[in-house]
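User: Hey, my collaborator sent me this sequence without any context and asked if I could get a structure. I don't really work with proteins. Can you help?
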Amino acid sequence: MTPAKRALDIVASLFLGLLLLPVIGLLIVLLLIREGRPIFYVSERMKTPTQGFGLIKLRTMHVRAGDGGVTGGNKQATMSRLHQALRKSRADELPQLWNVLRGDISLVGPRPPLRRYVEVFPDLYARVLQSRPGITGLASLVFHGHEERLLAACTSATETDVVYRRRCIPRKARLDLIYQRRRSLCFDLALIGRTATKPFRRE
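Assistant: No problem. I've predicted the 3D structure and written it out in structure-token form, which is a compact way to encode the shape of the chain:
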């Protein structure tokens, strides 16, 4: 990561964190009243092929043992309407601004993968994770909606895992590598702007 990109991360995440602090506070209160504790969910993700970290999110599922891994249609029963709204708007990812400040991730980059997928695709992620993972990125903007539709049709954890490995990881990686070849501060700012306006645009 270049000093300029790190400086952008720090300045932008501080600004956004302060700006969105009332929204985050309101969401925490809503979750506490409607769903109870815990409010936050910490998932191990990888920022390099060998180094993991705790990615912070607002909890969007009822607590249940064995619920690790990507989210498919088989997990709909563990999500309330509030949980689904948070996931659809991606408001559950707002606490990840703290991960940006810590240097775990950047504002823009490939989404940080689970350890299990890095271990299954070591050569692929050795290339993808040459870029610092991010909250948003080219693959997130281009493929996120299609990925959700693919996984929503899955009815078991096994099917979800197979679909994610075969139909999502390779496509997302291609987009992440395109970003890697084109990355610049201007490109990052364009992707941040597109992410900010995404809730107001039709898919």
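In plain terms: Residues 73 and 153 are 6 Å apart (CA to CA). You can pass these tokens on to your collaborator as they are.
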